Amino acid sequence: MAALGQYVEEFVEAWRELDAVYRDLGAAAWWPREMREWERKQREHERARKGTPSTRAGFEDSARRWRREAAELRGELERLRRSTPEQQAQWLDPWSKGRGSSRRQRGRDERDEADERAASPMWAGWRERLWLDALRADLHLPQPLTPTELAEAEEQLGVRLPQEYRSLLLEVAAGIPGGMPVPDVAPLLRDAAGRWSWDGIGTRTALSRLAEPFPGQEVDVPPDDEPRRKDFTSDEAYLAELAKWENEEPPYDGDPVGELTRGALCLHSLGCGEAIWLVVSGPLAGRMWADHLVSEGGLYALRRGRRAPVFFRDWFLGARGR
């Protein structure tokens, strides 16, 4: 080991140099998730030190690699120390970084061009703004859908989603998590079998009836589906159906409530079973409806003032207090 003294000293010096850079990066990080990531890499660096072979080649290889990595990370550290939270949010967002690199490359493929054609000023800057909010709250903001993914989902579901909502999916995110200063929006996901559906509160959406025209019927209380004697030809048939009704707890989105919400997407939870629906099919497509049926508060269209209907973007921005 004495003959290896020089290489061991260089090995230890290089290890300490990179370890110090990792500590500085963790201290300079703006966000908890990023700080944990640098701490994780520092722990991996410690494990690599302990696992280095006690040979000249092992010491030399590790020292060379660590010095090179430390030199590269010093540039990242300097940029981190000079950055604003907004700049860091853009650097950390994989979707934003992907868009930037695709714009710089000369030969952009058809998907990149389709992404840019699909973008509109409707949600300009909102991806960056919400990514920043998500980092502050230590939440995950899903990536937007690609035009190809959205087209596949709409084909499966048999509908074309309202334009304002489509733009959010393409430009901002496939869903908005709870705990942010904007309303949560049920995420549109593809499962392992390739089937598209909404998660969370969105599971209340009747996918098989999404293409049916929305009835647009406002009610003060949920309709009562208790059997009535007049609907049966005999007392025996009526009593049998009544007994079945009394002993069965139908699902919330079953008939008759399901009849009122067909052709609409359950998009946002108000808590305690109440929700906001986005009309997808029929003449009222794009409008937002409030569902308080579970608390007997009724089902009704959201309106601005007395008559103006509320569409998706109006609702989303209004809920943020803008």
Structural description of this entry:
This protein is an alpha+beta fold and 322 residues long. Among the domains are: 2-83; 91-189, no CATH class. It contains 12 helices and 8 strands. The protein has a 4-stranded antiparallel sheet with strand order 3-4-5-6, with no helix packed on it. It has a two-stranded antiparallel ribbon with strand order 1-2. Strands 7-8 form a two-stranded antiparallel sheet. It starts with a helix and ends with a helix. The model is unreliable at 100-119 and 250-255 (pLDDT under 50).
Structural class, by secondary structure, is alpha+beta
Order of helices and strands: HHHHHHHHHEEHHEEEEEEH
- Range of strand content: 5-15%
Average pLDDT score: 81
Helix content: 40-55%
**3D shape:** elongated
Ranges where pLDDT stays below 50 over 5 or more residues in a row are 100-119, 250-255
Helix count?
Answer: 12
| Main beta-sheet annotation | 4 strands, antiparallel
Biased composition (Basic and acidic residues): 107-118
Region (Disordered): 41-63, 77-119
Domain Knr4/Smi1-like: 144-318
InterPro entries: Knr4/Smi1-like_dom (IPR018958), Knr4/Smi1-like_sf (IPR037883)
